[in-house]
Amino acid sequence: MNRRAFLRTLGTAGTALATAPAVATTLIARDAAAASGEQLATLYDLSKCVGCGSCVAACRDAHAADYPEPKKPFPKMYPARVKAEDFSDKRDLDTRLTPYNWLFIQSATVSRNGAPVTVNMPRRCMHCTHPPCVELCPWGSAVRHADGAVAIDASICLGGSKCRTVCPWAIPQRQTGVGLYLDLLPAFAGNGVMYKCDRCHSRVAAGGKPACLEACPYEVQTIGPRAEIIAAAHAMAKSIGGFIYGETENGGTNTLYVSPVPFADLNAALKTGPGQPGLHAAADVMGKEQNLATAVLMAPIAGIAAGLLRLAGRFKNAAPKEDDHA
Amino acid sequence: MPDPLFPRWQKRLLLLAALGLALTGMGQMPIFSRYYIADIPGLHWLGDFEITAALHLVLAAVLVCLLAVFATTWIGAGANRPQLTAAGRQRIALYGALAITGLVRVLQNGSHPLVAPMQVRYLDWTHLGLAMGLLAFALVRGRRPAVAESYVGE
Ligand code: SF4
Ligand code: SF4
Ligand code: SF4
After folding, report:
1. Cβ-based contacts of B118 with chain A (< 8 Å)
2. Ligand 2 proximity of A132 Cβ (cutoff 6 Å)
3. Average pLDDT for residues A20-40, to the nearest whole number?
4. Whose CA is nearest to atom 6 of ligand 3?
5. Domains in chain A, start-ordered, CATH in brackets?
6. Higher-confidence residue: A250 or A310?
7. ipTM of this predicted structure
8. DSSP character for B84?
9. Are A55 and A122 in contact (CB under 8 A)?
10. B121 part of contact set with chain A, CB < 8 Å
């Protein structure tokens, strides 16, 4: 390679390096995925929900075969701080999320224009567009399907509960004594399987609708492409002078709530705790990683450019010698 | 004398990044809290997924950049380039495959998922397996040189 050709190469490398950030940013442009029209979202009109619980019952019927049947006694866990989480004797508990209850009704009474207003809220997984439970699961057992439904594969989940730790609403719930960890290292790795709403992924994939949506006598919930659902939520909020939750929370979710009262007021009046999520302004967990992800995608290009610069330096150092020979 | 093809500080940085990646990679599994390691004063951050995931990405950028520098200079050195030893080729294969599976995983979390949702597990398992492989390799063959000693440029 002669010197001029080499410098041309360097020029090309410089151009590549200059355009790399844009390319890398496009590759991880997160909102393109949600806006693609493929993802389905659901919309809850909370002004219509009477808290009858038909949806909760329908969910239980639809998923009866998916609930865990743990083996007892549970394997002894090491170290002792690792506690079993067992809901198998509390299968009927419906005041919170459990491995046997993927949907529950939360209620709060707040004062609005001097009058008390009670709002009933069906609560389940929000099906985030950038779900930390999926993107941070080290084992690939939490997945987000192309239609936006987020599901945990019970056949390979080890129950380490990282998904619950990183979920802004701590949604997934653990049942000990069931799953793959029993066949691996029951005392040392894993602790069961995590369970949560999968938005009836198999029903929807077969052209159906979520069981809870179908069962509601008041048509509280609708499902459709995310962009349409967002537009519908805004129209609904405008017509009742209401408020939206889920459009931007945790970077956007595929579950939107419209309420006649502010969510901050509801959040303050809610009873929260394990299995009872709040309605706080959840920051975008995965959004914080975006710049770092861009850096990783740019790294090979930066490395190639740096390598070419090194070669150019060596070439320059070696060049006088060659000239002498010439 | 020309600059060395692979300066020592870059090789040291590569080792440091690799060790950091192994640590923060292990931190992606919920084990540091479980085994009291995050309870040790000064090591609390090992139990914080937000911190370990961010550090894993930072170190990955450093590692991938260095690998690209080495590959470019090695290829560009032409006839001058040092010969790779068998251990060197194995090391390159492990690092390369680990970096590629990692880059694909980064794309997966963006808007260009290359792998179907139910297949991501195989990507994760391969990445994990390669990391274990590199660790085993470092223990067994770690001290073998990657390039032939006879190379005169260094
Ligand atoms: S079935 Fe409908 S009205 Fe009844 S609790 Fe569920 S969402 Fe509310
Ligand atoms: S709400 Fe929690 S469990 Fe559901 S998708 Fe979002 S992060 Fe995952
Ligand atoms: S979408 Fe399906 S799994 Fe989720 S709460 Fe409704 S019925 Fe249950």
Report:
1. 143, 153
2. yes
3. 72
4. A212
5. 3-316 (3.30.70.20)
6. A250
7. 0.89
8. B
9. yes
10. yes
Q: For residue A319, name the pLDDT band (cuts at 50, 70, 90).
A: low
Record: contact A140-B125, CB cut-off 8 A: yes
Q: What is the residue type of A290?
A: Q
Is A312 near chain B, with CB under 8 Å?
Answer: no
Q: Taking every pair of C-alpha atoms in chain A, what is the biggest distance, in angstroms?
A: 96
Is the backbone peptide bond immediately before B145 cis, with ω within 30 degrees of 0? no
The per-residue pLDDT for range A137-191, each reduced to its tens digit, is 999 999 999 999 999 999 999 999 999 999 999 999 999 999 888 888 887 788 9
Q: Whose CA is nearest to atom 6 of ligand 2?
A: A128
Position A95, amino acid? T
Tell me whether residues B109 and A289 touch, CB distance under 8 A.
yes
pTM for the whole structure = 0.90
Look-up of token digits 């391969």:
B126
Closest CA to B121 of A181, A141, A153, A190: A141
Which is nearest to A268 in space by CA: A121, A110, A125, A116? A110
Q: Write the secondary structure of chain A as one string of H (helix), E (strand) and C (coil).
A: CCHHHHHHHHHHHHHHHHHHHHHHHHHCCHHHHHHCCCCEEEEEECCCCCCCCHHHHHHHHHHHHHCCCCCCCCCCCCCCCCCCCCCCCCCCCCCCCECCECCEEEEEEEEECCEEEEEEEEECCCCECCCHHHHCCCCCCEEECCCCCEEECCCCCCCCCHHHHHCCCCCCEEECCCCHHHCCCCCCCCCCEEECCCCCHHHHHCCCCCHHHHHCCCCCEEEEEHHHHHHHHHHHHHHHCCEEECCCHHHCECEEEEECCCHHHHHHHCCCECCECCCCCCCCCHHHHHHHHHHHHHHHHHHHHHHHHHHHHHHHHHHHHHHHHC
Give contacts of B109 with chain A, Cβ < 8 Å: 28, 130, 135, 286, 289, 293
